[in-house]
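Deliverable D5.2: sample structural annotation.
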Amino acid sequence: DTTSGMWLNQQVNPMQNLMFNMPSALGCEHERPIECGSLKDSAKGKPVIVIGAGPSLEDAIPHLKRLQDKCILICVGRVFKMLKAAGITPHYTVSVEMFDWDAAIFDGLSLEDCKGTVLGYASVCSPATVKVWKGRKTCLWDIETAKLMKRTDYILGGNSVAHHMLNFAAQILGGEPIILVGIDLAYTKPQTHAEGSFHEAWPDEIKKKEQEYQQELWVPCTGQGDSFHPECHRTPVLFGGGAFVPSRVIEVRASYAYENFGTLFTVLI
């Protein structure tokens, strides 16, 4: 998905973010960061649940609360407050957004709120977001920066924070199996994200841009459609020329962005 990459680089300087994040990422003699390499294989043999902000997350909350002591939980930053309010403390929360306005996802959190959770942030993440998090942190180094610094504890990136979380779970933590929750890649309900994850503090221009990015289309999906809202799926049945589409193949509402994300997830997995 090169379009979003080109737009991002016109709006923000990734190298500047990287430079401002260096003090936090490298630390000093008085405050040492959590080195990403020190977490290597720390979840080996354990289930890891990677939590996105898709609409289906709303239905998964009771299960996440029940399983939080048996699994390692990694959530996107925008749902951290939502999970905490439900009595769930993720082991990790991840942010990769490069714009300072995204720091609103952690506004108002105290040190106690952040206790028990480590923030994993991309090296080019917004410095304002990294700074506002009051708990422990670890930098998720990208390949290019890590090679320049002669580091080996890097992860692959991706078009979305969900890709980063998957790679962190697999490449660094070594968890198995890895379960994706709330990473719908389609509209399971007639809304783009779970309630409470779309922050009102974001600028109107950004909210509008995100809605435009979610231009809808119908894509085929193999399944019964039980997990999709009636407005978000339909069952095509085609006759003619000997062609017949079984009822288990349905069409679901998605977006071009989600199609791209799904392709990369397939490659990574």
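Annotation notes: The radius of gyration is 19 Å. The mean pLDDT is 87.
The annotation will be released with the project's public dataset once the embargo ends.
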